[in-house]
Amino acid sequence: MLDELRSASGPDFDRRFWTYQLAEHQKAAQLLSYEIGSGLNPALKGLASEVLPTVMQHLRQIQTYAAAAAVGTGSQ
Asked: Are 29 and 59 in contact (CB under 8 A)?
């Protein structure tokens, strides 16, 4: 991933960056949701419950940026 970003520039860099960010935030949200629903450690469940809203807010923002980069507006 890092090599791909290093070799990209301009709109290509934007598209790749936001695509990676989108995928990683989706994974994080999925893991946090799993922990909240199925976790065995109460402290981790609590932490996941605190962190998930922030990750979801970031995910919504990234979806907007990724969509803009996909159509080439370069909006960041």
From this structure: yes
Q: Which residue has the tokens 């695509």?
A: 19
CB contact set of 44 (below 8 Å; sequence gap of 6+)? 35
> pLDDT tens, 43-73?
999 999 999 999 999 999 999 999 998 887 5
Q: Give dist(CA 54, CA 64) in Å, integer.
A: 16
Virtual torsion, Cα 12, 70, 65, 25, nearest 10 deg:
-80
Q: What is the 3-state secondary structure (H, E, C) of 17-68?
A: HHHHHHHHHHHHHHHHHHHHHHCCCHHHHHHHHHHHHHHHHHHHHHHHHHHH
Residue type, 34: Y
What is the distance of C-alpha 29 from the center of its chain? 8
